[in-house]
Fold this sequence. Notes:
The protein is α+β, with helices and mostly antiparallel strands.
Amino acid sequence: MSDIGISYNASVLPEPLRVRVRLHLTGTTVRATLEDVPGFVTTLRPVGNVGEQILSGVAWPVAQTLGILLPQVGNRLLAGQSFDLLPLPAPPPLRLNGQTLTPVLDNPSLSSRDGMLRFTASLRLACPPLP
């Protein structure tokens, strides 16, 4: 015997939902901030086996209410949210004549050029003090 529950397939209109995202650096981590989340509509459709579709149909008024409220609340919850995307990898150390040189990226920054993302930094080689 299988489990029976409430099951819906949720979709969002317009599709795709175009959200404006701002990328920026925090230290050596690329972060994204959701700046503009346009209005959207959520559609819920019962799915699953016959038992799940019957239970989902009974709960249909509640599901439709959630479908109406979710976009209003979702827009306020999503706009302004920030999250880490990826850390910038540290360049590998270089060995030269028995010395280890460590590349260091100073003043890293992200910008836009010709519609593309541009990463810039100043490269500095750090070496251990001589004995």
